[in-house]
Amino acid sequence: MIALLSLLSRLYSARPIVISGSCKCEAAHEHAALIQTVLDATNAKKDLTRVQIVSIASDGKSRRGKALTKLTYIAPLTRTSPIYELLTHLDLFDTFVGVDDIMADKDYKHIFKWLRNTLLREKGSMVHGIKLTWGLIHKHLSDSGLPLAHIEHVLNPMDN
Fold first, then answer.
1. For residues 54-66, average pLDDT
2. 139, 133, 131, 138: which is closest to 120 by C-alpha?
3. 75 three-class SS
4. In whole numbers, what is the pLDDT of the chain averaged over residues?
5. If exposure means fewest CB atoms within 10 Å of the residue's CB, which of 21, 28, 36, 45 is most exposed?
6. Which among 159, 157, 158, 66 is positioned nearest to 119, based on CA atoms?
7. Judging by beta carbons within 10 Å of its beta carbon (0-12, 13-18, 19+), is residue 26 exposed, middle or buried?
8. DSSP states of 125-139 as a string?
């Protein structure tokens, strides 16, 4: 879908793009080529539509995430970019971009889920020099008074 950022409600709606279905077994580079075809087709009509693609979103599937990385994590945003001053003060904002300053947008729920699953691995994760493990997180949540059922739900790595 292409969605336009506009104050006009008629324009501020998603426009579906129909692409022949995939077999869902293509590699990330093949998926990136498919997305690039849509970008190229849209950009070829820029003079007619006056549309500039600024972001590509992912639904969290690893294949799409890797494809977006291939297309949008090419180089840091340059100081000469027209959007540099708008974004440079956002400390946690990832300013890596692709061609024409295009950025990736990954649903935050998938990022949080990835972080949770990383923390729940048996070997744990180091955060500011402290090794966080499933057991330590469980103890802290328990000590804070959370019910056991809630803790087990939050710390269940099989919970999709």
1. 75
2. 133
3. strand
4. 82
5. 21
6. 157
7. middle
8. EEETTEEE-HHHHHH
Predicted structure pTM score: 0.63
Residue 21 scores a pLDDT above 60: no
- CA proximity to 154, closest of 141, 145, 143: 141
Distance of CA 54 to the CA centre of its chain: 14
Backbone φ and ψ for 127, nearest 5 degrees, come out as: -130, 115
Question: What is the pLDDT, as a whole number, of residue 51?
Answer: 80
Tokens at 65, concatenated: 């995430």
Question: Tokens standing for 2?
Answer: 């292409």
Token pair recorded at residue 126: 């180091």
Beta pairing partners, 131:
126
User: pLDDT tier at 12 (50, 70, 90 boundaries)?
Assistant: low
Q: 76: pLDDT confidence band, cut at 50, 70 and 90?
A: very high
Provide the β-strand partners of residue 106.
58
Contact between 6 and 12 (Cβ < 8 Å): yes
- Element (DSSP H or E) covering residue 57: strand 55-58
